[in-house]
Specification:
GO terms for molecular function: DNA-binding transcription factor activity. The protein folds into two domains: 84 residues; 39 residues, no CATH class. It contains five helices and no strands. With 165 residues, the chain is mainly α.
């Protein structure tokens, strides 16, 4: 019995809130209903503002975090760029130098490797040797203008002389 009465009251209140069945209500009941609707709207607006402010503050935090991450990535990219521009100086440009051992606390700066020793034995590359011999022979005999020059040819100059004469 009590349960059915409560259900009927709730259904009537729902119809009143929706705007149906307002004719049997008195002026005082209508004013009370209007006040209830106003307070409910105020609570809804307050909660909506709280949620929006929380989401805005979260977005500001994310923005700051992304900006920090972006600046860190830009710095590491710049370091990598300087390292790639100066590969011989590598770690020295960052300021680390070269460390020997895992527990060594003092690092020595990187020393560039010594230049390769001069070749005492002539090159065994046939193409270079033939080209060098051909230019020497042409300079000695003065045939530089008469013999057609071909950089891609492996044929010695004395074999080309019969083609031009």
């Amino acid at each position: 019995m009590k349960l059915t009465a409560k259900v009927q009251v709730l259904e009537r209140n729902l119809r009143n809130f929706v705007g149906d069945d307002l004719d049997p209500l008195s002026v005082k009941e209508l004013q009370s209903l209007e006040q209830q609707l106003d307070t409910s709207l105020k609570r809804i607006r307050t909660r909506k503002n709280q949620v929006m402010n929380q989401s805005i503050s979260e977005l500001h935090k994310r923005t700051r975090a992304l900006q920090e991450q972006n600046s860190k990535l830009a710095k590491t990219k710049e370091k990598e760029k300087t390292v790639s521009e100066h590969p011989k100086r590598g770690l020295e440009t960052i300021g680390l130098g070269q460390c020997s051992g895992t527990l060594n606390l003092i690092c020595q700066p990187e020393v560039p490797p010594p230049p390769p020793p001069q070749r005492l034995v002539p090159s065994l590359n046939l193409r270079d040797a033939l080209q060098a011999r051909r230019t020497l022979e042409m300079e000695e005999t003065g045939e530089a203008q008469t013999v057609p020059r071909s950089n891609n040819s492996l044929i010695p100059a004395w074999m080309l002389q019969h083609l031009t004469n």
